[in-house]
């Protein structure tokens, strides 16, 4: 089986080449371009393509892939909001993903962002490098005995809840389903209650029609003044223009984002002044209490090797005609 691997970075090649030795039936060719309706034609002669969160697997791209003979879309990520599933089904392209590779990797990064915001680590780092050892502007608050609000208690939210519990926080959660493994760790509350009481709010639900712009001016106004908001899930859970208004209203002690709405527009690839002037991400970066990382929550050694193994196992399940719980 022949797989075309889109948007390949050096670290992807390394982790997949390591894992490939256990899968002699599979060969992978790596290309730097990401999947979209222009690059889909590169898949001529391949049985499958491997794509990522940043890929554009909309109807147009899928139709071209199908024309080129591709019948399997291997997502090397958990989220699949960038895939037109209806079109894939219509075309008979099987879509498989890696639902959970290392929830702890993302949850630990969420806590890293929360701590960095709270304890002003970026500012502190810069000050000391400039030989300024004063503590002005660096005061934070204890997480111990404060309230954490986790929105979405699936694999990553549950890991984050356990981390917050370990910090001695009172952990509240909101989800459409309750996770029984969190009994004794988490108290489920309404979204309103969570927003109004939490000192730290961390988003771990998927992006769906129901959760699109879940954090907007309305919900921001319900939050406690001086809270910390962390989003490691998907950018469009937060309405960025409203977040900027909330920051201006001094609602937040800090905001930590690993994901942002403009992520798939490649705003920062074209650094023209005009684009940056209209970029909400660039505006967010102008606030000293905002920390943005570039979707690196998953980026640990353990997660990368687990992603490679599961993706190749998905390909084998397809090859051998097996149904899989990783089917989307
Ligand atoms: P999961 O499927 O295990 O958990 C999602 C939880 O959200 C479920 O418990 C579900 O019931 C809940 N949920 C669904 N709709 C909801 C709603 N309307 N309100 C509240 N809760 C709702 O997913 P997992 O593995 O925990 O991943 C969560 C998200 O994290 C993914 O959807 C993805 O967007 C993001 N992610 C980010 C990464 C990063 O590198 N920053 C890496 C991997 C995932």
Query: What is the approximate shape?
Result: globular
Mean residue pLDDT: 95
Largest sheet: 7 strands, parallel
Q: Report how far the terminal alpha carbons are from each other.
A: 21 Å
Please report which band the strand proportion falls in: under 5%, 5-15%, 15-25%, 25-35%, 35-45% or over 45%.
15-25%
For the largest beta sheet, what order do the strands appear in spatially?
8-7-6-9-10-11-12
Could you state the order of secondary-structure elements as H and E?
Answer: EHEEHEHEHHEHEEHEHEHEHHEH
Q: Would you tell me the structural class of the helices and strands?
A: alpha/beta
The residue ranges in which pLDDT falls below 50 over 5 or more consecutive positions are none
Q: What are the bound molecules?
A: 1,4-dihydronicotinamide adenine dinucleotide
Total helical elements: 12
Rg calculated over all Cα atoms:
21 Å
SSE layout:
Layout: E1 2-5, H1 10-20, E2 27-30, E3 48-51, H2 59-67, E4 72-75, H3 85-91, E5 94-96, H4 103-118, H5 121-129, E6 147-151, H6 155-166, E7 170-174, E8 186-188, H7 191-197, E9 200-203, H8 217-222, E10 227-231, H9 240-248, E11 252-257, H10 273-277, H11 280-285, E12 290-292, H12 301-319
Parallel strand pairs: 1-2, 1-3, 3-4, 4-5, 6-7, 6-9, 7-8, 9-10, 10-11, 11-12
Helix pairs in contact: 1-12, 4-6
The structure holds 1,4-dihydronicotinamide adenine dinucleotide (NAI).
Residues 78-79, 100, 103, 106, 151-157, 174-177, 204-208, 210-211, 232-234, 258-259, 295, 297-298 line the site of 1,4-dihydronicotinamide adenine dinucleotide.
